[in-house]
Request: fold
Amino acid sequence: MNRAFGVRLAGFVLSVVWVSTAAAQTPYIGYVYPAGGQQGTTFQVKLGGQRIDGTSGAVVSGEGVSAKLTKYYRRLSNQEMSLIREQLRELQRAQKQRKNGKPNREADAMIARIQKRIREWVNRPACPALSSIAEIEVTIAPDAKPGRREIRLISARGTTNPMTFYVGQVPEVTRKPMITATFQVLGKEAFAQRKRPPEEEEETVTVPCTMNGQIASGEINRYRFTGTKGQRLVVSVHARELVPYIADAVPGWFQPVVTLHDAEGTEVAFSDDFRFKPDPTLYFEVPRDGEYVLSITDAIYRGREDFVYRVTVGEVPFVTSIFPLGGRVGEAVNIEFDGWNLNRAKLPAPGPDSAPGIYHIMARTGPKVSNAMPFALDTLPEGFDKESNDDPAHAQQVELPIILNGRADEPGDWDVYQIEGQAGQRIVAEVLARRLDSPMDSMLKVTDSEGKVLAVNDDHRDAGIGVNTNHADSYLMLELPSDGVYYIHLGETTRSGGQEYAYRLRLSEPRPDFELRVVPSNVAFRSKSGTMVNIFAIRKDGFDGDIRLSLADDSKGFQFSTMTMPASKDMVKIGMRTHLRGTAKPVPLTIVGRAAVGDETIVRAAVPSEDRMQAFLWRHLVPAEELLATVFNPAFRPQLKRSPPELPDEMVEAAKERLGGAPTFTQRQVEGRLRQLRGLFEEWLLTDSFYNRKVAECKASL
Reply:
């Protein structure tokens, strides 16, 4: 890493840390459970977060999925728990007195609600940021497009951050949601572990099936199913993909492990990852009829309510590799692909009108679609490596500019390309492989005609890939010292190889460019007011120009003065304003940047992103689908869910007599107590009489 890039990278990291502090008061969700469902179903979803009081609904990206709020549980304090316990005792005494009389359905329902809150209450949550709970009802249309979506809550303070949510195609089963995990005390961890009845440790399912669960500390979930000889089963897990980064867990995410045993308990398959991805995937051809048990746990037996997973088991299509990894804009390309259960499958490339960029394509076998694979489109001419080009003596001659599609065909394979260059000419060699889901860990080297090494690179950090922590793609930019022949050597660092080790190698003169990220992906405005967002620039191929920032033309009701990000900066904080009093629903916004490169003006849309911490230290900008804005009136008060009863004056006088008339609490303490009582009353956890009595005591104590 050269010094200039290192300085810029350090500034980028510090900027992200500062951004996270500035955005500390926005509503947040840390998990969604279950994190998906089958087409044509309606089901309940639990979301855990903080500052989500006033939640009014939820929104799911794309079409065919709707969601509505059914319940919201805020975190209760110790004082509030004392109040509802006292209320419970009174109700239970009254229940015993009417044991042989007529039932009181309202009182019995309140007893059940209070018992549920007490049963699920945790004094010291393992993660307070997950302890407020919202429950929503999700409906997925039968024709909803399968695959990844994003889900957010809509609250009084705006929308939350997005979380991954999947639309599946096979039947699903969902384990009972976990209650809030308890903080573990060193040496007493066993007291914080979940105590589950034996019947919940293993479930019987019928494949194909998607199993939804949450892993608690030290826990193993098991699923028993019947397999038929010859079945080609794919077992694929979504876990790290659902929650990419966990701030207080090393290595920074749930690391699932899956194991398959036969009826005799013999291990027949195991996986703890899929190539470089933490989420495991395995292929299992059933050797004989019988029962099999699939187990899933965390690699080091951690767990908590945000250790959410989805495991799909069945003869479903799964693509393991494609070639080439991309193509030229507007030109047809025949994609070769390999994987499991892909008989008669088709994998279409992006349409001819698609712009340059990375697209996610899926193979289709009848009505079923596979996992998504990234596919890159560019404007440069395309070519393919021609074996054997393993050394300079057999180098493949190419002309700049070009993108070469190739493979590390076997362990230890090197592909060598020969170019003609002039003194002072600047060239770029860039590999796209790991960023396109290839397992290849590339190494680039440039030599002159005499074999002298001019430049070498193994890994190059791309800040635009927010979920990739293994930056294994190589990048070089250098100035040629003289006219002559030069060789670009491309190899695999780990000396691995095979048909899945594909790459795209760009050889060209520098193409100055940039990408933008806007943080956060949810922007909340008070009525006719303003707020701040942060724009990051990821500069490419030495681009060091100014970038003019503005809102897209269709951003009606929102504006900010066009401003310029100077060449010396990679991040600016900009103010946005609105003249709206409020919004009925979140409004998508687009921020664009314009920069002059020679005689050309480059226009790039800012990608909405979330600032996420990994394992106490590293920070990443995780891309989101939309930048959503909401405008709210801070004076607005939602309609009372339950109107409090009138307080008779004689109740206050009676309370004063009981207290002796001397003040016992300050005004501030009483106001806090009244807020607690009002909240519990609105949640139907207090009766009218109990509420009035406690309010009278508060007023009498002043």
